[in-house]
Amino acid sequence: MPRFAANLSMMFTEVPFLDRFARARAAGFSAVEFLFPYEHPAGEIAQRLRDNGLSQVLFNAPPGDWAAGERGCAALPGRSGEFKDGIKRALEYSAALSCPLLHVMAGLAAGAPRDRLLATYAVNLAWAAEECAKSGVKPIIEPINHRDIPGFFLNTTDQAASVIEAVGRERLGLQFDLYHCQVTEGDLVPRLERHLPLTAHMQVADTPGRHEPGTGEVNWPFVFSRIDALGFEGWIGCEYRPAGVTEDGLGWFAPYRA
Q1: Residue 229: enclosing H or E segment and its boundaries?
Q2: What is the value of pTM for the model shown?
Q3: What does the pLDDT look like over 201-232, one tens digit per residue?
Q4: How many independent structural domains does the chain possess?
Q5: What's the confidence (pLDDT) of residue 150?
Q6: DSSP bridge partners of 55
Q7: Which of 76, 91, 137, 216 is the 20 to 30 Å CA partner of 103?
Q8: C-alpha distances out from residue 245 to 4, 9, 75, 133, 140, Å
């Protein structure tokens, strides 16, 4: 049966971040993910996880200057020092939170030649894979659609698969976000079937609107049953914006509640 993790950066946002852990547990989730933990001490987050019997399954490496619009720097020439420092900081949190996966964002292309961006990306990811392996952590990469983040370097599952195969599928994984895939590519189930061997983590949101499953165009019962039949053993993060109060929109989740 698919296993779902609450995304605390998108869900329960009417309460302060550290209070969302208890809300997730009360709603029936046994695992959580979020974008960035760095505004809070790792020990404080770890305590919230313990207090609520939750597993931390994913968070993001530092993205550069998020407030200024940056969305990662893994593919950006001239930023390797900052990139490496960010991975090292993220691994300190990974250790404290017992988190096995680290999402590494590529960044915005910003007009640089694609071959130079790709070369920078491959070198940085290979370094990150080696560094993360020392701590038992697997870095993962996510294609993001052109509408939500215009100019993002990595847009399709096939692009991501090529990068992963170049670095090594044992060392680098795919974060398969079904929302981004639906917006950019469609054909969800055949793409899932093709890329499942590379997939370490999934995320869901319906389209349009990026709300909870059942509010848009995707036949989620069919998609989830196919994920189950394919034998996916990882977590599926609920990276959606609730259409209303989070708990009121969890009818889709009832069959999977922990």
Answers
A1: helix 220-230
A2: 0.96
A3: 999 999 999 999 999 999 999 999 999 999 99
A4: 1
A5: 96
A6: 31
A7: 216
A8: 18, 14, 37, 39, 30
- Which residues touch 208 (CB under 8 Å, ≥6 apart)? 216, 217
* Distance between CA atoms of residues 128 and 189, nearest Å: 30
The single-letter DSSP state of residue 190 is: H
User: Taking phi first (over 0 means left), then psi (-120 to 50 degrees means alpha), and beta for anything else, what does residue 151 get?
Assistant: left
- Which whole-number Å values give the CA distances from 112 to 120, 142, 166, in the listed order? 11, 20, 21
- Grade residue 20 by pLDDT with cuts at 50, 70 and 90: very high
From residue 40, alpha-carbon distances to 11, 17, 46, 118, 127 in Å are: 18, 9, 10, 33, 27
Quick one: pLDDT at residue 111? 80
Within its chain, how far is the Cα of 174 from the centroid? 9
User: What CATH number has the domain bearing residue 10?
Assistant: 3.20.20.150
Mean pLDDT across the chain: 97
Q: Which amino acid makes up residue 190?
A: P
Taking each continuous run of H as one helix and of E as one strand, the counts in the chain are 8, 8
> Could you give the CA distance from residue 99 to residue 46 in angstroms, rounded to a whole number?
10
Provide mean pLDDT across the span 28-34.
Answer: 98
Q: Which domain holds residue 84?
A: 3-256
pLDDT score of 146 more than 80:
yes
* Angle (CA) 53 58 63, round 5°: 135
Question: Which residue has tokens 């547990």?
Answer: 25
Q: What is the distance between the alpha carbons of residues 156 and 143, in angstroms, rounded to a whole number?
A: 5
Secondary structure (DSSP) of 33-97: E-S--TTS-HHHHHHHHHHTT-EEEEEEPP-S-GGGT--B-TT-TT-HHHHHHHHHHHHHHHHHH
Whether 133 shows a pLDDT value over 90: the answer reads yes
